[in-house]
């Protein structure tokens, strides 16, 4: 497993990180013993970066991670997230930070994160979403800075709202965040316009999520695939979205064949390598819920980088599909 530096403190993190949403729930049935085996397998394969959140099973993902941390001697970097208090998701322009991320709320939530993970300091605490409406009065981030000064947090981050990822550019330039977590994949390449260059300019760490587009860019789902009601992807791929996505995946596969990549790379390999081609990216969080998925995702790090010709050609798959979370 190759490692990369995570600015600004220069932590060495595995370039493939463990996405822990599925082990908390909402991706269909999941057995805790399977989850624990999966976490151990990932660490055995060199993964030392785990990304979780309060909302992943109401802290269940964090508590599973805590069990594994107690059994391992390796130094594991754990990033978690604090959601805003009850209200619209993502926050609307009319939401007040005082109602969603008050100082008292942030302190109480951080205490719960520390308790669930069984640690005295969080390696990286990210606000799970944000709104541009708070950029000129970013008090929640100043509260996190105080908590960092108190030794309860090492790094401060924001996970971008899907509908307005560029809202973090101002935060980066103002030195208010150490790390941003962004969506960047073959279908959604918007981060290449400003977020990634500004991260390089400001020395901000970058974590990429949804690199496999919630599994579609693994190439394993046909257009008629139906997800169970207890899997959030039944909503993400609602209506005709799965068929439309599968058609686009077929076009990527055709490019892989034309570029001579298909013999050595899986579809998931190509999707992950496309993201890792950007030097600003410190780690790509890939969801893992089985040992098999651990082996599939971690093997990518062992493969040679995609040639420049392939990266250039694959950029054509950028898909301006709008915000699916808002409805069909």
From TrEMBL:
InterPro entries to which the protein is assigned, alphabetical: AKR2_Oxidoreductase (IPR053135), NAD(P)_OxRdtase_dom_sf (IPR036812), NADP_OxRdtase_dom (IPR023210)
Domain NADP-dependent oxidoreductase: 15-317
Superkingdom classification of source: Bacteria
UniProt xrefs under Gene3D superfamilies: NADP-dependent oxidoreductase domain
Pfam families assigned: Aldo_ket_red
CDD domains: AKR_AKR11C1
Cross-referenced PANTHER family: D-THREO-ALDOSE 1-DEHYDROGENASE, NADP-DEPENDENT OXIDOREDUCTASE DOMAIN-CONTAINING PROTEIN
Protein name per Swiss-Prot or TrEMBL: Aldo-keto reductase IolS
Organism: Novipirellula caenicola
Gene from which the chain derives: iolS
């Amino acid at each position: 497993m190759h490692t990369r530096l995570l600015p600004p403190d220069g932590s060495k993190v595995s370039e493939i990180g463990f996405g822990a949403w599925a082990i908390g729930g909402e991706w269909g049935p999941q057995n805790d013993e399977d989850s624990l085996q999966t976490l151990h397998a990932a660490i055995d394969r060199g993964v030392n970066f785990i990304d979780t959140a309060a909302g992943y099973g109401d802290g269940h993902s964090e508590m599973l991670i805590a069990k594994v941390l107690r059994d391992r001697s390796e130094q594991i970097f754990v990033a978690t997230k604090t959601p805003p208090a009850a209200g619209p998701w993502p926050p609307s322009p009319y939401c007040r930070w005082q109602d969603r991320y008050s100082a008292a709320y942030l302190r109480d939530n951080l205490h719960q994160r520390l308790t669930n993970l069984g640690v005295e300091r969080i390696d990286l605490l990210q606000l799970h979403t944000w709104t541009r409406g708070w950029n000129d009065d970013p008090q929640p981030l100043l509260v996190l800075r105080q908590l960092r000064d108190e030794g309860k947090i090492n790094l401060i981050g924001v996970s971008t709202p899907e509908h307005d990822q560029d809202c973090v550019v101002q935060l980066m330039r103002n030195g208010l965040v150490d790390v941003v977590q962004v969506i960047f994949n073959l279908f959604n390449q918007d981060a290449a316009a400003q977020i990634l260059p500004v991260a390089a300019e400001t020395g901000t760490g970058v974590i990429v999520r949804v690199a496999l587009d919630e599994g579609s860019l693994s190439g394993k789902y046909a257009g008629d695939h139906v997800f169970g009601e207890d899997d959030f992807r039944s909503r993400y791929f609602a209506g005709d979205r799965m068929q439309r996505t599968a058609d686009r995946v077929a076009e990527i596969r055709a490019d892989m064949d034309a570029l001579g990549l298909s013999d050595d790379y899986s579809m998931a390999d190509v999707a992950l390598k496309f993201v890792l081609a950007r030097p600003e990216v410190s780690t790509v969080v890939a969801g893992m819920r089985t040992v098999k998925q651990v082996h599939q995702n971690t093997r990518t790090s062992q493969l040679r980088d995609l040639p420049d010709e392939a990266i250039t050609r694959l950029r054509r798959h950028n898909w301006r599909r709008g915000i699916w979370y808002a409805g069909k």
